[in-house]
User: Fold this.
Amino acid sequence: MRFSTFLLKYGEIGIKGKNRYLFEDALVRRVRHALSGADGSFRVYKSQARVYVDCEGEYDYEEVTERLKRVFGLVGICPVVRLMDRGFEELKKDAVTYMDETYPDKKLTFKVETRRAKKTYPMNSMEISRDLGEAILHAFPDIRVDVHHPDVMLNVEVRTDGIYLYSRVIPGAGGMPVGTSGTAMLLLSGGIDSPVAGYMIAKRGVEIEAVYFHAPPYTSERAKQKVVDLAQIVSRYAGKIKLHVVNFTDIQLYIYDQCPHDELTIIMRRYMMRIAEHFARKDGCLGLITGESIAQVASQTMQSLAATDDVCQMPVYRPLIGFDKRDIVSLAEEIGTFETSIQPFEDCCTIFVAKHPVTKPKVDVIRHSEEKLAERIDELVKTAVETAEVIRIGE
Ligand code: ATP
Ligand code: MG
Assistant:
């Protein structure tokens, strides 16, 4: 027997009341987008508070389930055998074959549960469940019924377009469908943390844009390519990502020339935030996202974070704020960004880091240092913004 449909279960979006259809429609769009690159032809639709994918013709089961597992908003993915209604005797045989093929080891307990959407079917749900259960018990001596905690729940749906059998539930990614919570601007470096931060915010339904600051020739083309590769991996979950690549070299050199070296990182980070916010505002984003976590490095002490926030009008979302590095690493491994993140290409901060950076910067001291940039900084920022390259990922 072959799985020709997937029944998709969603969690939190079920509780959204009158707006539920908006979430369901977004989910349908996300599922369509996720399957658009897969071999085969798929019909994605909602019906009776569920979302279905009908696979028409040949398709790769592994590929399709892998893609569905990355769609935020889904809690369960049920592969369904779709049958023509050829009478109840045939259905009994089919249910037995289904159990036989799906569970080679029959030392298990089961229960049959029927939903009858087609009210003209000659038997009611109770009768269908009971008689199919009996046929399965009869076919396999080792199998037992357990109505309270069955190992296998065989679901039977009698629908106008046929009969659906399913029992397996593949865990989904959870979260909310991307596109239901607005857009935010991710500061994406080539490190381990920021791709994970983007993933976490996208999981809450937020569409992601990204900005990367590179400093050629101090950072190489390979370092930039690594960021593009990371954006590509994040986009498997988050959907399309508009990536802005900003040439930061002249700004960095100017800060290096004019400001105290122990404050370089903080001042650079403030300019990154300002420029990120410029693009965010222009594209209607509702916030910025970074991969910072308290005390991870000198520029992420509470004082440093406050000095960075000082230049932001928009909320800055830092989903990793309370995470230890090893927790971030396990998430990076899980979502598939880790291997790319640890490739040894320098990112722009490592070139200009001071030996002893301030760990407790005072906002007014930093502001004062920035006054030394008055002569040229506006013009340099303007040029950086105007010459930024836009790379569209995952379209
Ligand atoms: P990551 O592993 O994400 O690079 P990190 O531990 O190296 O983080 P920092 O270099 O202090 O930390 O950067 C903190 C945050 O600032 C990053 O998570 C990222 O959001 C942003 N950031 C740092 N460098 C860049 C860059 N070159 N381009 C864009 N964003 C950056
Ligand atoms: Mg970094």
Notes: The domain at 5-171 is CATH 3.30.2130.30 (VC0802-like). The chain has two domains: 5-171, 183-393. Residues 180 and 338 are 27 Å apart (CA to CA). The chain has a mean pLDDT of 94.
